[in-house]
């Protein structure tokens, strides 16, 4: 029994030692104490295609102005530090965060020994085009993501490395695209040029035509009057809100069969050809705040339709749905039609054409010039089956109390990350 007692004591001591090892390690540290940033970009990549980084001892080298968390040894955080210059970057760094500073220039010096950089965030600074050393980014052969939004760029920064996949240039002063600015970027999948000063003359050279992997382009809040020419067939998300586009050429979207979301609110559209949006994969269509007078054909794939604040007097369901196919039903679930000139609700025939419809937001209508009116039913909500109710998102529970502000929130241009 003495021997057994001694073994029991030894076993308990060993178990306590192991437990304490785990108890001392705070699993929450990596998440809770992570600065308010997105997680490092390399987590989204297949490890087999990452640039190989040599093993390094701890603690890793870090610029004294910055923070290099042990949990993410390949990242260096230099954001929100009132920096006016870019610090020297250790050679092992893959993610560099310099947003929200007072940086005006991007010299080549700090990037001299950098080989493995995959992401640079220089957003919310004061960077000017002529203060970017020529070729400073082009030498970074592993760079896949570059944030330069919210700066003072007057021109598209180039040359850029062919490895680049995501380029964010929104909220600058870009009014020019040099003829070869977008050449040599075969891997670009997402390009954000919202909130700049681009007009039709900039796009005459068809700068996007050869970007064969481009899936998303944001051109909202510019000065475009016509649709951008020769977009690549790979495109899936197109943002053109807050421009001055007045028409869509017939068959314009025939070469864009992969389109999933199209946002063209706050333009000057008056009439669109009936079958303009006959796209097999379209899920979201936003044409709010235009001057449309009638509706158009709705593809069977479409789920969300926004046509608020137009001049529509009646919703002609047969134009939207010329035939009913019990096997291949329309997927439309939500329509927003407030701030039009409707005097009667949508015909009940719509519920045969669109059997999945859940919500029609009528809101207030602009029937009279000086006074808005409201239909008897400002919001139509179809009674859901128990199965549908379980699938309904929590943020749809208050549709009966929706306001203009609630809906305006969805009018923002595409969030850069899908």
UniProtKB/TrEMBL annotation:
Keyword Signal listed? The answer is yes
What keywords tag this UniProt record? Cell adhesion, Disulfide bond, Extracellular matrix, Glycoprotein, Leucine-rich repeat, Proteoglycan, Repeat, Secreted, Signal, Sulfation
Recorded GO CC terms: extracellular space
The region annotated as signal peptide is 1-20
Instruction: List the Pfam families.
Output: LRR_8, LRRNT
Q: Which domain of life is it from?
A: Eukaryota
Which PANTHER family does this chain map to?
AGAP008170-PA, OSTEOMODULIN
> What is its biological role?
May be implicated in biomineralization processes. Has a function in binding of osteoblasts via the alpha(V)beta(3)-integrin.
Subunit and interaction comment: Binds the alpha(V)beta(3)-integrin.
Q: What family, per the record?
A: Belongs to the small leucine-rich proteoglycan (SLRP) family. SLRP class II subfamily.
Protein name, UniProt field? Osteomodulin
Species of the source:
Scopus umbretta (Hammerkop)
